Amino acid sequence: MAHSLIWEDAGVYWKYSGQVSGEEIVDASSQVYGDERFDDLKYKLVDFLDAECIEIRVDQVALVAYQHRAAEMSNSSIQTAIVAKPEFEQANTFALFFEDSNWDVKVFNNMDDANCWLNRE
Predict the structure, then answer these.
(1) What is the pLDDT of residue 37?
(2) Which of 83, 86, 87, 92 is nearest to 114 (CA)?
(3) From edge to edge, which strands make up the β-sheet containing 2-7?
(4) Burial zone of 105 (CB within 10 Å; 0-12 exposed, 13-18 middle, 19+ buried)
(5) How far is residue 55 from each of residues 10, 71, 87, 90, 100, measured CA to CA in Å?
(6) What pLDDT digit, counting tens, does each position of 15-32 carry?
(7) Helix/strand/coil (H, E, C) string of 71-96?
(8) Which of 16, 54, 89, 115 could staple 120 via S-S, CB 3.0–4.6 A?
């Protein structure tokens, strides 16, 4: 279980590797949304490509989605790219929570497509 948060000029890059727990995802979300830089973010790039597995319960997915919904009130125009292997169905489940959100949330299977969509160099 490992993750890193890298703050960039216009966004934040979340990198997960190994075995990822729901608790870790909840904690990382709390770190980002509690940071003063959050209000100026244009994008979030969440990278699960090096994750061996993601062990997250449905209630934890709902909690993370709730955190995002609350954070949307202070920054309503964030693009979120989730990059995951096709077999990690949780990424698509998570994205469904944002169908009626102001945030654009999209799932990708490779970094190139995600970076292009985010206009990230």
Answers:
(1) 94
(2) 83
(3) 2-7, 11-21, 43-55, 79-83, 104-108
(4) buried
(5) 30, 24, 13, 9, 26
(6) 999 999 989 989 999 999
(7) HHCCCCCCEEEEECCCCCCHHHHHHH
(8) 115
Rounded Cα–Cα distance for residues 79 and 15 (Å):
16
Q: What pTM was estimated for this model as a whole?
A: 0.86
- Residues in CB range of 106: below 8 A, 6 or more apart: 79, 80, 81, 82, 95, 114, 117
Coil, strand or helix: which one is 57? Answer: coil
Which amino acid, residue 54?
I
Return the DSSP state at 28: H
How far apart are alpha carbons 115 and 49 in whole angstroms? Answer: 14
Q: Residue 36 contacts by C-beta under 8 Å, 6 or more apart in sequence?
A: none
Task: For the chain, list the domains and their CATH numbers.
Answer: 2-118 (3.30.750.24)
